[in-house]
Amino acid sequence: MRAQTPRALNVFALAPYRLRISWNTGETLDVDVEEILRKIPALAAILEPAVFAQAHVGEHGTSIEWFDAEFGADNVYAWTREQMGEASHEMLLDWMWRNGLNLDEAAAALGLSRRMVAYYRSGQKPIPKSIWLACIGWETLQDITAA
User: Fold this and answer.
1) Where would I find the beta strands (DSSP E) of the chain?
2) Minimal CA–CA distance to 71: which of 55, 50, 95?
3) Measured between alpha carbons, how far is 20 from 65 in angstroms, rounded to an integer?
4) I want to staple 112 with a disulfide (CB 3.0 to 4.6 A). Which of 6, 46, 73, 116 is the partner?
């Protein structure tokens, strides 16, 4: 089982815009951050290869940092999971927001307890593929019935 809060142990900058990160979960995962860097103008300087190469783990492994910019380790870990084809807590949050669902409503929609949805939403527990497929199916049915 994955640790409740993923923490980065070390990070290596790979070209272009990929990071290889060793986690306290025992995993070493690669993540491509180019799209994120290009979306946020304040991070444009990190796109310079010499700056990107300076990626390092922040204090206590809670972030990946460059000069005065950082990404939260939990978000970077979620991005690695997404890029591996798995659902992340960020994807679940986006699904809930897109559909105007609070915890109770999301739990009812998925046939889960409020507590389990809270675990998934916070990233404390990995989201099983069947639950993510249920999210997609529920949303599709809402679109069909609204049409």
Assistant:
1) 8-14, 18-23, 28-32, 56-57, 63-66, 69-72
2) 55
3) 13
4) 116
pTM (two decimals): 0.76
Q: Where are the alpha helices (DSSP H) in 28-88?
A: 34-39, 49-52, 73-83
Angle between helices 129-146 and 89-98 (to 10 degrees): 20
Regarding predicted confidence, which is higher, 66 or 5? 66
The span from the CA of 117 to the CA of 3, in Å, is 17
What does the pLDDT average to over 99-119?
96
Are 92 and 121 a contacting pair, CB within 8 Å? yes
What CA–CA distance (Å, rounded) separates 74 from 62? 7
Fold of 89-146: 434 Repressor (Amino-terminal Domain) (1.10.260)
Fold of the domain built from segment(s) 8-83: NE0471 N-terminal domain-like (3.30.2020)
pLDDT digits (tens, 9 = 90+) for 12-69: 999 889 999 999 989 999 999 999 999 999 888 999 999 999 999 999 999 999 987 8
Question: 107 burial class (0-12, 13-18, 19+ CB within 10 angstroms)?
Answer: middle
